[in-house]
Design goal:
Structural class of chain B: alpha+beta
Strand content of chain B: 25-35%
Distance between the termini of chain B: 32 Å
Number of helices of chain A: 13
Strand order of the largest sheet of chain B: 6-7-8-3-9-10
Shape of chain A: flat
Distance between the termini of chain A: 50 Å
Oligomer: heterodimer
Helix content of chain A: over 70%
């Protein structure tokens, strides 16, 4: 009797234990992302006292938006936030508009110097910004780009572009060539075939590349600090201002850095997953 | 409807010559297979006709008009790809309608054409599904329906059945033949599977090393191969090749002399289909040492040697031959292909037609 039950129970317990493993893994990953955000939010919204309260209560107490709104009203915060959005927008737009065609060419065509081109693209990251900072500042002043958001956006594009080109190359290689050829045969020009067939199938990957470019620009602080004086991006602004600020201001700044990325990724999450499954087989 | 003229097409990839002056004429409404082993250039030729590949030199005429330099969409053709190439982000309906939509056909025509094509290929019930919910065979039907819906002048098929399992392939082959017979479209069909080519085609072009070795009806290509390669490639078991000496313009097979064609030298190769023989008593017949006898039910397959050269012979299953026997064979003189040992080509004069 007992032998019977164990033999029956073992496959069931295997299933339940693997399911338990799955859900605990999911919980751990969620906690990995959410707990720090939660703690930062707690610090930002808890006011002057909330930051120093220890041990932390599980559920937030004495929370109000006031300290955060006070932070937002601080001079320069809102403007630098908008500056950051602008620079990130320029970075996303340029790195997709320039990087995706480069990736497409790398994926579809064989040309002389393809490998050296790929290497060259990566080499743009071989020179640390710290070395380039001074010459860049000088030429930006000459070009009238110094202390402008366009200038910062251009530099961030340079940082994001190599990845955009190489990542989109992989994405376009994942769209079978035969699909495109079928489109040509059935009446498409090359451009039509790209927009009707390739682009919809590559969309998830392109969106992921856009997220990546956004995050690169949003988090970048060195170039933004060097190349701006008054039109600071949020990171550069916070770096200079917050060291002299009270603790809950710093947390509010941190939260403000985190939130747009999270919201952005959340907004485009639908496109991050291949809906149709690219495989043609 | 249109005929296709392929005029001295050459194609090289760097120093590799994929196609060496291929010429071929396909008549209006005809079904022609390009048959050959992988790497023989058959797919390259098809892609040149489709406009997906450029030729190094030569011309392709569709309906009397040169299409070299035209993009694929201006050639008035449709194509079925080996991996189906069904668009994964469109429903089956939109897939089949794709060509018509690109031609800016009105909705009513799109609807009738899609329904007609879907009906021919029995995919009506899947029209609003996405391709990832379909099996391989169903996807292949969608690909064929998409090609037929535009009523093309020319239909190109690139190994359309090679990704299907054996049973499904057989079923689709019969169905394709039914569908295409009623459509009457000029069709070029690329395959490495001789049974597909034999079963479907009006004519077969056997390709080897970038050249067309022979063009002919399935029966002609089978019975009268133009080269040793064609004989060896087509037929299961393949044609037997027995090298024999020629004396006074004659070859002795057993006690029976066979008249060799005039052009032969001291030696000639007899191309012999496995089933073109009969059992004969020994001093009269050609001696064959049977190494293995395999009763296959429908026939008896004998593997052994004649003049110490390996052969495979098919006899009716009513005959009793055992492994290790020595038997005599009577050859059918009308079904012998005489081949030159030097060039590997057959002597056409001697090949009775």
């Amino acid at each position: 009797m007992s032998a019977q039950t164990t033999s029956k129970a073992s496959p069931a317990s295997f299933v339940s234990s693997s399911r338990w493993l799955l859900w605990s893994g999911i919980a751990a990953l969620c906690a990995w992302v959410l707990v720090p955000i939660y703690l930062v939010a707690l610090g930002a919204l808890g006011g002057r006292q909330g930051v120093y309260q220890w041990p932390k209560t599980g559920l937030p107490t004495g929370i109000s938006l006031d300290p955060f709104i006070l932070f937002l009203k601080t001079e320069g915060v809102l403007q630098s936030f908008l500056n950051s959005l602008g620079a990130a927008g320029i970075t996303v737009a340029l790195s997709i508009l320039l990087g995706a065609p480069a990736g497409y060419a790398l994926a579809r065509y064989n040309f002389h110097g393809k490998d050296s081109y790929r290497l060259l693209v990566l080499l743009t990251r071989a020179f640390p910004l710290a070395i380039l900072a001074l010459p860049l500042t000088v030429s930006f002043i000459r070009l009238g780009l110094y202390d402008t958001i366009i200038g910062v956006g251009l530099i961030h594009t340079v940082l994001a572009l190599p990845f955009a080109a190489l990542v989109t190359q992989g994405i376009f290689m994942g769209v079978p060539r035969e699909l495109e050829e079928a489109a040509w045969v059935f009446g498409c020009t090359r451009v039509q075939a790209f927009f009707k067939i390739v682009a919809p199938l590559a969309l998830p990957g392109i969106v992921a590349t856009a997220v990546f470019a956004f995050v690169i620009s949003w988090n970048e602080v060195f170039a933004a600090s060097v190349l701006t004086v008054r039109n600071r991006t949020l990171t550069a602004y916070l770096l200079t201002v917050l060291s002299e600020s009270p603790m809950h201001y710093r947390f509010a700044g941190g939260l403000m850095l985190i939130l747009p990325s999270v919201i952005f990724i959340f907004a485009v999450r639908r496109y991050l997953f291949a809906i149709w499954g690219i495989s043609s087989k | 409807m249109a005929n296709i003229v392929i005029d001295r097409i050459r194609k090289s990839f760097g120093t590799f010559e994929a196609l060496k002056e291929v010429s071929l004429t396909i008549n209006d409404g005809e079904f022609v297979s390009l048959l050959g082993p992988s790497g023989c250039g058959k797919t390259t030729l098809l892609r040149i006709i489709a406009g997906l590949e450029t030729s190094t030199s030569g011309d392709v005429l569709i309906g009397g008009k040169s299409v070299i330099g035209l993009p694929p969409k201006e050639r008035g053709l449709a194509m079925v790809f080996q991996n189906y190439a069904v668009f994964p982000h469109m429903t089956v309906y939109e897939n089949v309608a794709f060509g018509l939509r690109m031609q800016k056909a009105d909705d009513a025509r799109v609807k009738t054409q899609v329904e007609k094509a879907a009906g021919l290929l029995h995919i009506e019930q899947y029209l609003d599904r996405y391709p990832n919910k379909l099996s391989g065979g169903q996807r292949q039907r969608v690909a064929v329906a998409r090609a037929l819906a535009v009523e093309p002048k020319v239909l190109l098929m690139d190994e359309p059945l090679s990704n299907l399992d054996a049973l499904l392939r057989l079923e689709m082959r019969t169905e394709l033949k039914t569908v295409l017979q009623s459509a009457g479209t000029t069709t070029i069909y690329v395959t490495h599977d001789q049974t597909e080519a034999m079963g479907l085609s009006d004519r077969i072009a056997v390709m080897h090393n970038g050249m067309v070795e022979q063009v002919g009806t399935p029966v002609d290509v089978y019975n009268y191969p133009a080269t040793r390669f064609v004989g060896g490639f087509i037929g299961n078991p393949p044609m037997n090749f027995i090298k024999v000496p020629v004396t006074n313009g004659q070859v002795t097979a057993g006690s029976e002399p066979l008249k060799a064609p005039k052009e032969t030298g001291d030696e000639v190769i007899l191309g012999l289909r496995g089933e073109a023989v009969q059992l004969a008593p020994l001093p009269l017949g050609l001696e064959m040492k049977v190494r293995v006898a395999e009763p296959m039910g429908s026939h008896l397959l004998l593997t052994g040697s004649i003049h110490d050269q390996p052969v495979r012979v098919i006899l009716p299953s009513s005959e009793t031959v055992r492994s290790g026997d020595v038997i005599g064979l009577k050859l059918d003189p009308n079904r012998i292909t005489w081949l030159s040992p030097e060039s590997g080509k057959s002597f056409p004069a001697a090949t009775a037609r």
